[in-house]
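FORM 7B: Structural annotation worksheet

SECTION A. Query
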Amino acid sequence: MSPASPPAPAGRPPLRIVLADDERMVRTALRVILEAEPDLEVVGEAASGAEAVPLVRSLAPDVVLMDVRMPEIDGIRATEQILATMAEPPRIVVVTTFENDAYVYDALRAGAAGFLLKRADPDELIGAVRLVARGDSLLFPAAVRALAVAHTVGGPAPAALAWAARLTDREADVLRLMATGLSNHELSERLGVGPQTVKTHVAAILAKTGSRDRTQAVIAAYEGGFLMKKS
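SECTION B. Predicted structure
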C-alpha cells in the first residue's frame, strides 16, 4: 500500500464514511480512529450487508469500509448491490482478517476499490480512506497476484489477449506499474510525466480492459496472463 496520504486541503468538507461490520467493538474502534481526523466523518454504521445496502443508498457516502464476512448478506453481495444500483456509488474497501481470503478476490472482482487487513494500524486505515476517496486503488500487490493466480484456470482468455494487443507500449508500462500498487502521483514521478498524462493513460487502460477502476484492470491483467509474461 502507498504511504499514508495527506488530509484534504482546508475548506473542503470532510470525507463521509459508512462502516459495515457485524462486530460493534470493531465499528466503535474504527469510528474513534477515523473521527480523530478533521477531514474524516463517520456518517453511518451497519451490522450486516442487509443493513449496509439501504444505508449506503440513503446516505451516499464517499467511502464504505465493508467487512467481507457478515450475516444475511456478506460484503461481496453488498458491494455488488451497491455498485449496481447507485449512479454515483461510493468507493468500497473490503476489510478482512486474512490476506489470502478467497472472499477478498471475489469482492475485488465485484468492484471494490481494494482491501484492508483488520490488523492494519491507524495510519494505514486513515491513509486507505483518503487514497481510495481520491480515485486510487488500495492494492497489496503480492496478495493480489497470489489471489489471481489461485483463481485463474487454464491460459489467457481470447478476450484478454485482444485487449492486451490494443494497449500502446506506454499504456502497457503504466498497467505493469499499477500492479505494483503505485498511485497516480507515484506513476507521474516514476515516468517523468504530468499527472494529467497519467490520468489519460489510466483512463485508456480502463476502457480497453473493460474495467470499472484500477483494481479491476490489474485483476484482468493477471487473469489474462498479461502480467505473467513480463513484470
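SECTION C. Observations
The chain has a mean pLDDT of 84. Residues 195-209 form the longest helix (15 residues).

SECTION D. Sign-off
Analyst initials: ____
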